[in-house]
TrEMBL record:
Protein name: Transport permease protein
Species of the source: Kribbella koreensis
UniProt KW keywords: Antibiotic resistance, Cell membrane, Membrane, Transmembrane, Transmembrane helix, Transport
Family note: Belongs to the ABC-2 integral membrane protein family.
Repeat as UniProt keyword: no
KW Membrane (keyword) present: yes
Transmembrane portions of the chain: 21-42, 62-88, 109-130, 136-161, 173-193, 226-246
Principal subcellular localization: membrane
Domain ABC transmembrane type-2 residues, every copy: 23-252
Bilayer topology: Multi-pass membrane protein
PANTHER family cross-referenced by the UniProt entry: NODULATION PROTEIN J (PTHR43229)
């Protein structure tokens, strides 16, 4: 109960800070919206090819990738905020409190998850006038996947931020990781339309399977192998991310 109470206190503080300065959340949502309005229309002429006959709606292919992208990149860079708090002495002040070290991370991660889910809902609502049609069950499960991805990448971002304690080290590290993940996960276009060697290379990325799983959910194939593999990988990534984040917070905040 103490961990839950401490988590709620940390979450409330973090959420108030986000509401006072919503510019970061707006900027993170603006990128997927630009992809939606400026890149999405280009997919319509090649819908049959990118969907391989599974759907006639290009946005059933494109929007799942965008919300996964939002879950990844919306949480990947939250560590910069933690570095700012470290320099302001907030982390040092947290160390002398009786608050649970896990709660110090969990409260911040919960704030990031709530923000990402709200952003994903807004993105889905913006896609409806453009022609997005998907079953409610698949959409709700997709939001759960976005929440788990957000928890994963936020935990890892906070962990790396506590270790590096420097934007100069964190920025190139995250950018070096983000680009391969973006290109090999099939977020913008399914990897099935690429050459064989690129498909094989992308198979090593768990995020490719997550993206394919969300696309299956948007088609209504909730019990398909693609959706089940996507759920499996996102749960595994979440367990690993939270474990690494909790361990780092215990060590660095001891």
């Amino acid at each position: 109960m103490k961990v839950l109470t401490d988590t709620w206190i940390v979450f409330n503080r973090a959420m108030r800070l986000s509401l006072r300065n919503p510019m970061w959340s707006i900027l993170m949502l603006s990128q997927p919206l630009m992809y939606l309005f400026l890149f999405g229309p280009l997919l319509k002429p090649i819908t049959a090819q990118i969907s391989q006959g599974a759907t006639t709606n290009a946005y059933q292919v494109f929007i799942p990738g965008l919300i996964v992208q939002l879950g990844m990149f919306g949480a990947m860079f939250v560590g910069f905020g933690l570095i700012a708090e470290y320099r302001a002495g907030v982390i040092e002040a947290d160390r002398v409190t009786p608050a649970s070290r896990i709660a110090l991370m969990a409260g911040r991660v919960l704030r990031d998850v709530v923000v990402l889910v709200v952003q994903s809902i807004l993105l889905l609502l913006a896609a409806l006038p453009l022609g997005l049609r998907a079953p409610w069950g698949g959409v709700l499960l997709s939001l759960v996947i976005v929440a788990l991805l957000g928890a994963t990448f936020a935990s890892l971002s906070y962990s790396v931020a506590l270790i590096t304690k420097s934007e100069d080290a964190l920025a190139p590290l995250l950018n070096g990781i983000a680009m391969p993940l973006l290109l090999l996960s099939g977020i913008l276009l399914p990897m099935q339309i690429g050459p064989t060697w690129l498909q094989r290379l992308s198979d090593i990325s768990p995020l490719k399977h997550v993206v394919n799983g969300v696309r299956a959910l948007f088609r209504g194939d909730i019990s398909s192998s693609a959706s089940l593999w996507g759920l499996f990988w996102v749960v595994l990534l979440t367990v690993v991310g939270l474990a690494v984040g909790a361990r780092t917070f215990r060590k660095e905040s001891a």
